[in-house]
What we know:
Layout: H1 2-10, H2 18-21, H3 24-54, H4 63-93, H5 99-111, H6 116-134
Helix pairs in contact: 3-4, 3-6, 4-6, 5-6
Amino acid sequence: MLAGVLSCAAMLYLPITKTWIVSAPARRVYFVCALAAFSLFGVLVESRAARTAAGAASFTNSPSAVLTVKLLLWSGILGSALLSVAMWYFWFGFDDSSWIKKAFWFLPLYFLLLLGPACYYFLVYRRRTASELRR
């Protein structure tokens, strides 16, 4: 747990500006990453459901299923990781919400590794950056 806090604190020293983290290309990348995070959750749930329905312990009998699940898992893992770092960076450095709202979002960001950053992206980051771009 301490390592996670220290790594998050170390992110504050990267030379990333607010104009970069809320830019249009960054918003597009984070959108794709949020979709990948949701798909990762779906792949994990559905692959378990498919194995249970088939009565199999794994997908070893079907190489195409193994390849498909691995591709979906890796894209979701990479998207979730990138989104998690970006949303933590935004939460620490650029989110000017009240302390109570930031405290509320700490729990999903920290404990819900797959869905927390994606929810934060859609419910906080996207709204905040959209209103800043209109100004």
